[in-house]
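Form P-L/3: holo structure prediction, ligand pyridoxal-5'-phosphate.
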Amino acid sequence: MAFSYLDNNAGTALAEGVLDAMLPYLHQQQGNPSSSHRYGRFARTALDSARQQVADLIKVQPSQVIFTSGGTESNNQALLGISKQYSSGDVLVSSIEHPSVLEPAARLAEQGFNVVHVPVDESGRIKTNNFIEALSDQTRLVSMMWANNETGTIQDIAALTEITRQQQIPFHCDAVQAAGKLNIDFNVAGVQLMSLSAHKFGGPKGIGALIIENELDWPPFIVGGGQENGLRSGTENVPAIVGFGMAAQLAQQNVQNYQLHCQQLRDALETRLQAIEGITIFSQQAERLANTVFFSLQGFDADTLLMTLDRQGIAVSSGSACGTGQQTPSHVLMAMGVDEPTALGAIRVSVSEHNTLEQIEQLVVVLSKEVDRFNHLMNR
Ligand SMILES: Cc1ncc(COP(=O)(O)O)c(C=O)c1O
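OUTPUT (holo model):
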């Protein structure tokens, strides 16, 4: 059986060269970067160059990069950090954020903040008018994602921050699905905080970063030995950070080829899918990540279809990977006004540079067979 991993928004394979970069720090190089001897200095040098590589990816200074355990931690610290400065006020999030933003936002609501969920249109784009209306002199923080993990829809972050900047409201952006897949410039985007995660673009799992604007005074999230500029104490995960740095450098070098390759596969898949009766492709008209196709087959249950594909060696996702196992429709699709039966049939295909046209053909063959079988049963 030929295997096709088509779930790259959930996690990617290590990019070529990342494991080799990490290996010395997993065995020979045992030094703690805080130690003054040669072993420590060696680890510190590795940490410094990885910080530079991550900084280069989004065009910031290395001092702005705070390493964390991944996107979830970065998002939590960005949201919850505001509660160390204020005890009330408004916090704006979009209604299609990842649970790692929505859940800390819910904690802020429990603490007395007024959390406003800004709606999106049918393609998943934030409604600017609603956003402007929701802002007030009580707004303490805004958190809006760059690219959605389910639909791939890209927001115009710079247009949103142009509005918040005038009012000096800190803007956090979850760029976990965008970094490494799109060209990102932190300063052009005009944000004050940004979350990154290595395993979405060829780095290891369990490592990410919170990027903080130099002028922003942000409270420490973990206290102790004072690592990471005093903001996130704890001995740094040197091998993972080195892998993150290498993945960032490779992604930056390859972003154009990556986009071209993924878009070819995405277009091929969508052309073939459109020939299937009863198909809905979400956000097709919106500016989207080149690697993501989110669609629904009328009458199908996504989790059953996912298992059928799995038996044929094809790995896809039903909605958000972090939310699988739940038989609830995707909150992203519900926010876009999709009806519940259609949302329950939603399948996400997310490709990478490692996928091929043959794998796309194989997926379409299996899907078409399933649709034929279903129609045959319905017509009996
Ligand atoms: C948009 C988005 N934000 C945050 C996360 C969480 O990142 P991590 O898996 O590094 O905790 C994910 C993971 O799927 C994501 O897609």
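COMMENT: Residues 70-72, 75, 98, 100, 145, 149, 174, 176-177, 197, 208, 321-322 surround pyridoxal-5'-phosphate (CB under 6 Å).
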